[in-house]
Amino acid sequence: MAVAKEQIRQIISQNNLNSVADVYSLLKESFKDILQELMEAELDASLGYEKNQKGDLLTDNKRNGHSQKILKSQYGEFKVEYMEITYHWEGDYLIPDLKLSDTTEYQIGKYGRMRKRFLEENHRGIYSHMILSETLWKHLAEIDEECNGMMDRLVRQMAKKEGVTEQLKSDDWLCWLQKMNSIRSRAEEIVLHDLVYSL
């Protein structure tokens, strides 16, 4: 779409363009504005109504909030705003169209559940941040795995140091069981202190 010479002269006059750098700066800003308008027009067309439109809308979708992105172009980097969240009606309620970025199904065992309870009851800020940043379940799974690995190592090391062997198990099973229960209890205390109940 060509621009008439009269329009070009008007643009030069209105924007006080005196150098190539001035023209380049104007192109950059214009490109940003045009792109912003194109993105908003695309969203308007998709949702069926314009930004900030009031009254009864003939659509099940709503939008709210915005965010910024830095786009790179031949005119350099610049920030554009875009709508972040859309909504849809379910009965009388507006439900946000949200999807988790991490859809992995983590297996959370005993120590992961204990860690979750510890954070939830004693460190609400950290707990809430981890939920909102979608890192909680991965963290719990990692803690659970680390605790089980540490338990196995400690039990083996302590049993070896204290002479709790397979020979003892076959000679005096009850004595072996008592010693192993004591070892597991002490090992778990270390695991809880070092991993589950620490920050």
- Total number of helices: 7
Global morphology: elongated
Q: Give the biggest beta sheet.
A: 3 strands, antiparallel
**Pattern of helices and strands:** HHEEEHHHHH
Poorly predicted tracts of residues: none
The count of strands amounts to 3
Q: What would you call the quaternary organization?
A: single chain
Strand content: 15-25%
Could you give a quick summary of the protein structure above?
The chain is of the alpha+beta class and about 200 residues long. It is built from seven helices and three strands; from the N terminus they run ααβββααααα.
What is the fold's blueprint, element by element?
Elements (H helix, E strand, L loop, with lengths): L4 H11 L4 H28 L13 E13 L2 E15 L2 E4 L13 H13 L1 H9 L3 H26 L4 H6 L1 H24 L3
Antiparallel strand pairs: 1-2, 2-3
Spell out the key features of this protein.
three-stranded antiparallel sheet, 199 residues
Describe this structure in words.
The chain is of the alpha+beta class. It is 59% helix and 16% strand. The chain is built from 7 helices and 3 strands; from the N terminus they run H-H-E-E-E-H-H-H-H-H. The protein has helices spanning 5-15, 20-47, 110-122, 124-132, 136-161, 166-171, 173-196; strands spanning 61-73, 76-90, 93-96. It has a 3-stranded antiparallel sheet with strand order 1-2-3. The longest helix has 28 residues, at 20-47. It is elongated and about 105 Å long. It starts with a helix and ends with a helix. The mean pLDDT is 79.
